[in-house]
Design brief:
There is one protein chain. By secondary structure, this protein is of the alpha+beta class. It folds into two domains: 75 residues, Winged helix-like DNA-binding domain superfamily/Winged helix DNA-binding domain (Arc Repressor Mutant, subunit A, Orthogonal Bundle); 165 residues, Chorismate lyase, CATH 3.40.1410.10. Helix content is 29%, strand content 36%. A hairpin with a 4-residue loop joins strand 7 and strand 8. The N and C termini lie far apart (46 Å).
Amino acid sequence: MKTPGLRYHEIALEIRARIEDGRYVFGKTLPSQAALADEFGTTVMTVRQAIRVLENQGLIESKHGVGIFVTGLSEEHRAFQLKSFSQSLGDASQLLKTEILERQESLDYPRAAHSLGAGFEKVSAIRRLRLFGRHPIVVQISYVAQKHWSVIRDYMPDSSLYSTLNTHLHTVISQASEKLTAIAADTDVAELLDIAPGTACLFSERVSKDASGNPVLFDQAYMRSDRVELAMKRNGKKSEFQYEIAEKEKE
């Protein structure tokens, strides 16, 4: 059974994620505390504790007799922050499920440490399996500097790791560099993705940075090439790359 302290923290993270992805709109009111308590299956007191956390972060403001207003993360701020893999899927993200396979507090992995700008400092890691409906599509390993182990420890599978990082580090992840290659899936990855060993899959390495350009997250992801596609959308001079889920398996 989860302790009340952890529960209100989880609720605060989820409400923040909804503010960040636009489900709770800047300047508008949140559902009532009673409605939130009913949705999360908890007490009004626990929701009130979560609300207090978000008020301290400057994201919401309670006005007695009126409601709870979203005051942080304006449209300008939201446009500035970087979308996570799940957030980039739009409506399709509703069918995306995440399973946590493993969390590691202390790991020697120079490649991740170097990418995070931490020299040979130990890193903390979380390995996740992404499923679209019932189908596994991505194996993702995310690394942070070990001093940020609490981010990995507190991350919940129904929330965005970006949102969790933003909350814990009081920053906004707004930049990333990513490299995509095609590789043959090894036995472990193939088993998790339900494909034959040696099958070609997309391999991504991504370094995500805050607004000051400091690296905070290093991701490695193995994606089923028959289910995940990289698409580019153009709007005038602007180009945006994003992942999409293939509507059906490729022959």
